[in-house]
Specification:
269 residues, mainly beta, 14-stranded antiparallel β-sheet, 14 strands, 4% helix, elongated
Length: 269
């Protein structure tokens, strides 16, 4: 059992950098080394963005079995602030050799404001592979769905979700001064296109309000024998104007935000 406590620092704005970047090397190891999922393990993160700050206390709450595979469930003591904690508590994960698979939900409704239920479901989606090379795509999926936004407007969403292996670090230093050995990063990203189908005075009209662009990019840093030590998540988009005189969708025209989650305390077995 390992218990580590570090001093809490407020005002975290950016993820720290490694003092020894070995991005072209593969550091071997099983998945359990990089995400110890023993029931009762916990991680406490300081979460900061331009809009809010808080603390997420994430812990392994239980296990389930499906088709011979063991899945782990996660909870937080309060509603999660951070993207990573929100993802982990949305479903369940399992490990197999060097990979971590996730069942859950990526919810982006808040990105576009109230009334837009933008959720992407994960079904045994690979979010980490300890044996992958830098830049290797771990998993991907594409799809589309329609959101009834208002009586006059339907939004047709086309999206692509993918995960990609990032750099490997022999040691990695966080902004709070703490450092960890044997760290691997992975990125989860979403690009999307949104078409508004509008009925104006009884006549149908369609317009692309979101050209295909990346709206989410989240990088997680996994330390051997510890788990996720830091997360850096960017949300952004730029909407087109509706080419109808006097007509505007009640959505923010553009948005950009960065959220960091930095490990403050943990206990793993």
């Amino acid at each position: 059992m390992k218990n580590k406590t570090i001093i809490l620092l407020f005002g975290i704005a950016l993820i720290g950098c490694s003092s020894d970047d070995n991005s072209n090397n593969n550091i071997g190891g099983s998945t359990s080394d990089y995400l110890p999922q023993q029931q009762g393990n916990y991680w406490v993160y300081d979460v900061n963005s331009e809009e809010f700050s808080g603390r997420d206390s994430l812990y392994v709450s239980g296990t389930t079995t499906s088709q011979g595979d063991t899945y782990y469930t996660y909870e937080t003591y309060e509603a999660p602030f951070g993207f990573y904690s929100g993802l982990m508590t949305s479903g369940q994960s399992r490990s197999s050799e060097s990979k971590i698979f996730m069942n859950g939900m990526v919810g982006l409704g808040d990105l576009f404001g109230e009334g837009l239920d933008f959720d992407i479901e994960l079904d045994d989606f690979v979010i980490f592979d300890g044996n992958a090379s830098q830049g290797q795509v771990l998993d991907s999926e594409s799809g589309s769905f329609t959101i009834p936004y208002s009586p006059e407007v339907d939004l047709e969403v086309e999206y692509t979700l993918f995960s990609k292996a990032g750099q490997n670090y022999s040691n990695y230093t966080l902004v709070n001064g703490d450092y960890y050995d044997d760290v691997k990063s992975t990125t989860l990203a979403i690009s999307a296109k949104i078409t508004a189908n509008i009925v104006v005075s009884g006549f149908p009209f369609s317009a692309i309000i979101l050209e295909t662009q990346e709206i989410l990019n989240s990088t997680q840093y996994y330390a051997s024998s510890v788990g996720v030590i830091a997360v850096n998540t960017n949300f952004q988009y730029q909407l087109n104007e509706i080419p109808l005189p006097g007509y505007e969708l009640p959505l923010p025209q553009n948005y950009q935000s960065n959220t960091t989650e930095v490990l403050d305390d943990y206990l793993v077995e």
